[in-house]
Specification:
The protein has about 400 residues and is mainly beta. It is built from no helices and 30 strands. It has strands spanning about 10, 15, 25-30, 40-45, 55, 60-65, 70-75, 90-95, 105-110, 125-130, 140-145, 150-160, 160-170, 185-190, 200-205, 210-215, 225-230, 235-240, 250-255, 265, 275-280, 285-290, 300-305, 310-315, 325-330, 340-345, 350-360, 365-370, 380-385, 390-395.
Length: about 400
């Protein structure tokens, strides 16, 4: 058993001159200091105790940490379906309560082999994890169809109770150097809690290299529940169910001005309209896009150019002032030889920066969730070279 490391006080330091109101104070707690890579995080209630747990796609294990004592439980490992070959890495995870029973459904992507873009047996795999009676035990993996280079996944609500597991490969089939067939964004229709046949469809195929995507609330007035924002070498693309209820609509929402985007996060459509990106892929820039007029390209503001391998991003109102902050993490040492996480506050073309983690987190992924139900969003991060999972408790 791995034991949670005691909480340490964390003081944010402003990195922009003339900083205004500082972000809230955070307390830093390492809940695991011995992970392998920490490719992906998800947040959700695994055991039904009404407290969000932390789920992790680590190199060879899919695991979850129980809220409270933060004990780690392995859900599945060695998902690589091939026999007689070294086990390739897990790479992504998705967790969401689909049937309203207070417990998340979980899926994972594995067999990470980005150099093999042709053979699906040698690259990529998608697994729905069937819940056991005791969630601290092993979950049974159900393998679903996939394209090579499976890289990211999310649960997506296309309509009331119409749940899809959307899977994003890194490359198109047979792609070499960003050229060849486009990436096929795939969607598996969840058959429901009693099981049944999974249906699969391709919902978009336009970009030739993608990296990450986000699920955005479409707003109360929209005929669909959610919208997808996909970041790739050719920009940021929006995908949603078609207005007539059949098929999917997609368009290039933000063109590639700096070699595309690797990470993208968005807020509720019709709200602030804020979209954040890390550009280019594995890039150095944190960029904010404002709400566009209909049919126009959103305004673009570069708010930081100092990251090295920016790889984690979130948007959240951390201090309760209704103005969202952007949180970004990077995984390779910057010009000062440091890794970490920053928080950006502002709007329009004016942003200020504060350090959340100064060289203690080589950030591979991060999420924002209120883990202790105190009304203040907390930040959870997984570190690659730092080999840790850390909770930054929002003190409000």
């Amino acid at each position: 058993m791995r034991h949670a490391i005691p909480i340490l006080a964390l003081t944010l330091s402003a990195t922009a001159p003339g900083a205004g109101a500082a972000p809230p104070e955070f307390r830093r707690q390492v809940i695991d200091d011995a992970i392998s890579i920490g490719y992906g995080l998800a947040i959700g209630d695994v055991d039904g105790d009404a407290k969000p747990d932390v789920l992790l796609a680590d190199q060879h294990q899919i695991a979850w940490y129980r809220n409270g004592d933060w004990e780690r439980f392995v859900m599945a490992e060695h998902l690589n379906p091939r026999v007689g070959v070294r086990f390739l890495d897990n790479v992504c995870i998705a967790a969401r309560d689909l049937d309203g029973d207070g417990k998340v459904e979980v899926a994972a992507g594995a067999n990470w082999n980005p150099g093999e873009t042709t053979d699906p047996e040698k690259s990529g795999s998608v697994h729905y994890l069937i819940r056991p009676e005791d969630p601290t035990g092993r979950w049974e993996p159900l393998r679903l169809p996939h394209d090579p280079t499976v890289h990211r996944m999310h649960w997506f609500e296309a309509g009331d109770g119409d749940w899809r597991l959307v899977v994003l490969p890194l490359h198109g089939i047979g792609n070499r150097g960003g050229e060849g067939d486009p990436v096929r964004v795939g969607a598996h229709t969840w058959p429901g809690p009693d099981g049944g046949d999974w249906k699969h469809e391709v919902i978009d195929a336009a970009q030739h290299k993608t990296h990450n995507f986000d699920i955005v609330d479409a707003g109360d007035d929209a005929p669909w529940k959610e919208v997808l924002l996909v970041a790739g070498a050719e920009g940021i693309r929006g995908i949603r169910p078609a207005r007539d209820g059949g098929g999917w609509d997609a368009r290039n929402f933000i063109p590639s001005e700096t070699g595309g985007a690797g990470e993208v996060r968005g807020l509720k459509v019709g709200g602030s309209g804020l979209i954040a990106a890390i550009e280019p892929m594995h890039g150095h820039q944190v960029v904010a896009y404002g709400e566009p007029e209909r049919g126009d390209t959103p305004s673009r503001t570069v708010i930081d150019t100092t990251l090295n391998q920016g790889h984690a991003l979130a948007i959240a109102d951390l201090d309760g002032d209704t103005k969202p902050e952007i949180i970004a993490g990077w995984r390779s040492p910057d010009k000062d030889g440091k890794v970490g996480i920053k928080i950006y506050q502002g709007e329009g073309d004016t942003w200020e920066t504060a350090l959340l983690d100064d060289n203690g987190m080589a950030c591979e992924d991060l999420k924002v969730a209120d883990l202790d139900n105190d009304g203040h969003p907390d930040i959870i991060a997984a570190g690659r070279a730092s080999k840790n999972v850390v909770i930054y408790w929002n003190e409000g």
